[in-house]
Amino acid sequence: MIRGPIRIRTLAWILAGLAVLAVVVFAAGLSPIGAAGGHSAAARWILHTAMRRSVAFHAMGTEVPDLSAPGLARLGAAHFESGCAPCHGSPAAPTGGAAQAMLPPPPDLAARIPLWTPAELHRIVDEGVMMTGMPAWPARGREDEVWAVVAFLRKLPELDAEGYRALAHGGPEGSSRGLALPADPPFADCVRCHGTGGRGPDDDATAPGPIPRLDIQPRAALEAALKSYAAEARPSGVMRHAAAGLDAATLAGLAARFAAAPRDPAAALDPAGVDETLLARGREIARRGLPARDVAACDACHSPRGERVRDVFPRLAGQRRSYLEAQLRLYTADPPVAGGPRAELMIQAARHLPAADAAAVSAWYASRAPAPR
């Protein structure tokens, strides 16, 4: 009759004793936290299973964009080379000894990527993984950059060393790889995306993609942008990694170097392949704005004629269409994903611009010949 209550009471005392013992071990610092021995098999299973379940749960419902969009994987590959390969290695170079000693060690991505869906990869790149060396994406709200990395990761398992170099460096013996030397590493970082002349990948001004042309920009605008990225005032995980730690003189030198490069007179977009109605709508917005929606004329600041008084504003004529559309989405997001000395001006100018009109004005500027310097 009394065995049941006694057993319950005994079990309660045992559990209480274990709890007290756990507190004593924790408070006294008796539990080892050294990384020399690594995790036990049970701890590894618990941590990895929890991570996989969490990623799968939080990735549900994520809308995956077109990962085959022109230039998307190229941007992701260029960032991977400087921001990810030092820990994960690449088909062109193995993981370094310091990374291999991390706990847990960074995984071989070529073997692991097929185990994850694009949405799950997005979750990992965007949010990072606790209790590992995998950080969250440094610029919150830059979904476009995260998806660029995912687009590259999906290609990674099929790349050999030559294919990787072609995507991340611009070719196995390309100019950007030749410049990746200690003599000028900041410029080499820029070249991987923007090319030696600032025209973009492979120095082709007409190639579509998310990487902006620099050859059409005045020095003041380039320097202001670089300083904003370096100060983390303008959100960009890609540019933050490239510009962080560079002093003002180096940033000014990079701006001057690209501003002095020969300007390609070609527009980024052939107007013959674009709907005339769309271009006409874009021209109207650029020149007159949308007064009924309180949208100012873009030309008021981004002059198509190249007056030096407006050199602090980036030039839009001849810029890539997909880049312009992506930037407008950032300014019109809720909340806006923007920063820099004139961010508020642009937020106010674009906040009432519908997505269809943003596409139209982007196409219009992309189809124009670049303004003279």
From TrEMBL:
Keyword Electron transport applies: yes
Keywords: Electron transport, Heme, Iron, Metal-binding, Transport
Record keyword Electron transport present: yes
MF (Gene Ontology): electron transfer activity; heme binding; metal ion binding
Bilayer-crossing regions: none
Stored Pfam families: Cytochrome_CBB3
PROSITE patterns according to UniProt: CYTC
Residue ranges of domain Cytochrome c in the record: 71-157, 173-262, 277-369
InterPro entries: Cyt_c-like_dom, Cyt_c-like_dom_sf, Cytochrome_c_Oxidase_Subunit
PANTHER family for the chain: CBB3-TYPE CYTOCHROME C OXIDASE SUBUNIT FIXP, CYTOCHROME C4
Protein name: Cytochrome c553
UniProt source species: Albimonas donghaensis
Lineage: Bacteria, Pseudomonadati, Pseudomonadota, Alphaproteobacteria, Rhodobacterales
